[in-house]
Amino acid sequence: MRRNLIIGGTLCAVFILAALVSFFWTPYDHSVLDIPNKLQPPNGTHLLGTDHFGRDILSMIMVGARTSIAVALVAVGIGMGLGIPLGLWAAARSGSWLDELIMRGNDLVFAFPFLVIAILITAIFGAGAINAIIAIGIFNIPVFARITRGAALSLWQREFIMAARVAGKSAARISVEHILPNVTNLLIVQGTIQFSLGILAEAGLSYVGLGAQPPLPSWGRMLADAQTLVSISPHMALMPGFAIILTVLGLNLMGDGLRDYLDPRLRVART
After folding, report:
1. Lesser CB count within 10 Å: N end or C end of the chain?
2. Collapsing DSSP states into helix, strand and coil, what is residue 260?
3. Could you report the per-residue pLDDT of 20-77, keeping only the tens digit for each?
4. 94-103 own/partner pairs: CB under 8 Å, 24+ apart
C-alpha cells in the first residue's frame, strides 16, 4: 500500500536527517563527560536524558544514526555490487560448472552463521566499524546473488531474450541490457530489506563489542552500556532501542510499499 511507503519513508527520512544534521550540530557534544548530571531522566535540559557518564542521549542517538546508516549502507552496497553480477553470471551460464561453483560458494557462506563470520573477521583484523562492514557485506553477497539468479533464470526463457540472442548479442550484453533492468525493482525492494537487517546486524555486533568502538557512539553499544542499569535508568535502554525499532520498521514499511508500487501486477490488482 502507498500508505506503507509514506509512513516508512517518513520514518527513514527522520533518522537520515538526524544523521546528516549530526555532522554540523547536536544539542550537546556527545564526547564530553558530565558526571554531576549522569543518569538524568528525560527533562527540559536533556530531552532524552543522560547516560552513566552524563552524556546527552539525544546527541548520541543522532551520531549513532550516522554510524548505523553508514555501516548498513556500505555493507548493502558491497552485497549488491558483488552479488548482482555473480547472480547474472550464474543465470547466463545456468547448468554449467560456473553456475554450480557460484551457487556452492553461496551455500558455503550461508553454512556459517553471521556472527561466526563477524567473530572470525574481528579475530583476524580486530573489532571496528570497518570490519563490521566487511562481515555484513560478505553475508549480503549470496543473498543478492541468489535473488538475482532466480529472477534472471525465468527471464532467459522469455521471447524478447530469445530475440536478442538471435540478433547476435552476447550473454553479457543481454544480462546488462535486458535482464538487469527487468529485475531492478525486485533488487531495490530486497535492498531496503537488507538495509534494515544491516541496521540490526550493526547494532548486534556493537552490542557484543565487535562493531563501532568508543568514543564513536553506536546504538548497539548504548544498549550494552544500559543493560546493567535498566532498573535504575530504563531510558538509557529504551531510547536507543526505540531508535533501532523505528528505523527498521520504517525500512520494512518502505520496502513493502515499494514492492506494491513497483510491481505492475499488484497495481492492476488494486485497480
Report:
1. C
2. helix
3. 999 999 999 888 888 888 888 999 889 999 998 899 999 999 999 998 999 999 999 9
4. 94/153, 94/156, 99/149, 102/145, 102/149, 103/146, 103/149
Residue 261: which residues within 8 A CB-CB, separation 6 or more? 2, 5, 267
Rg of the chain (C-alpha set): 22
- The pLDDT value recorded for residue 266 is 53
Residue 237: left (phi > 0), alpha (psi -120 to 50), or beta?
alpha
2-23+55-270, superfamily in CATH? MetI-like (1.10.3720.10)
CA-to-CA distance for 22 and 103, rounded, in angstroms? Answer: 42
Residues 6+ positions from 50 with CB-CB distance below 8 Å: 34, 37, 38, 39, 40, 56, 57
3-state secondary structure of 50: strand
Of 73, 35, 42, 68, give the one whose Cα is nearest residue 57: 42
C-alpha cell at 228: 546493567
| Residue that has been written with the C-alpha cell 551460464 in this structure | 93
For residues 236 and 230, what is the distance between their CA atoms, to the nearest angstrom?
7
Per 3-state DSSP, what percentage of the chain is helix, strand, and coil (rounded to 5)? 75, 0, 25
In this prediction the pTM is: 0.87
The length of the chain is 271
